[in-house]
Amino acid sequence: MNHPYVPGQSAVLALDTGDLKALPRLDLDGPIVVAIVAALVVAVALVVAAVLLSRQKRPKTKQQPAGAHAKLGPRDVWKQRIAQVVADYDDGDIDREEAFARLATVARRFASAASGTTVTSHTLLDLNRDRTVSGAVSQDNWTLFRQTIAALYPPEFADNEHHRIARDATVDQAAGWVLALVEKWR
Questions:
Q1: Which residues contact 166 (CB under 8 A, 6 or more apart)?
Q2: Does pLDDT of 58 surpass 90?
Q3: Tell me: the pLDDT tens digits for 151-163?
Q4: Residue 84 to residues 78, 98, 102, 180: CA-CA distances in angstroms?
Q5: What does the DSSP assignment read for 139-182?
Q6: Smallest Cα–Cα separation from 171: which of 102, 79, 72?
């Protein structure tokens, strides 16, 4: 006894189990899997596109050098500055103490430019205990710089009675120390 539903009429209820017919099961497993795979493919494509587009937007600039080559220019500039101090001393334009002070200034400015950290006003005590600067500079460079400044200071400030090396150091020797700093810095 099948009673089809007609709009405008009241619904007819099934009176026995024979009137009930099971609807076929909707199989959604296939479409769900397809939708998930499609979403993953789109997500991967978006990530790849974002990476590629971000690379294209970066301006093509030359990578800035770091360390010893940062803002240094040729080492010959520093060698010329050292030679100028020696020439000024040899010409009698400056005395020995002024020559040592200028060589210390050249060494400090070189180390500042090479390391990217200003060390022009550090005392020897600062240089010996400042681990923040030495962490940014190779240990060999930092040690060489500290030794150079320490060697330049005694002739300038040390008690000559207790520091024979300081008393006997020449401007040419001191210039050699600063030149070694410039040449050995890596």
A1: 154, 155, 158, 160
A2: no
A3: 887 655 555 555 5
A4: 10, 13, 10, 16
A5: HHHHHHHHHHHHHHHHHHHS-TTT-HHHHH--HHHHHHHHHHHH
A6: 102
Give the integer Cα–Cα distance in Å for 68 and 71: 8
DSSP type of residue 21: -
**Gap between the Cα atoms of 183 and 75, Å rounded:** 8
Residue 48 in tokens: 């790849």
* Number of helical (H) and strand (E) elements in the chain, helices listed first: 8, 0
Chain length of the chain: 186
Measured CA to CA, the distance from residue 26 to residue 138 in angstroms comes to 71
Q: With beta carbons less than 8 A apart as the criterion, state whether 5 and 11 touch.
A: yes
In tens, the pLDDT along 71-100 reads 545 788 999 999 999 999 999 999 998 999
Which pLDDT tens digit goes with each residue over 99-148? 998 999 999 899 888 888 888 877 777 777 765 555 556 788 888 888 88
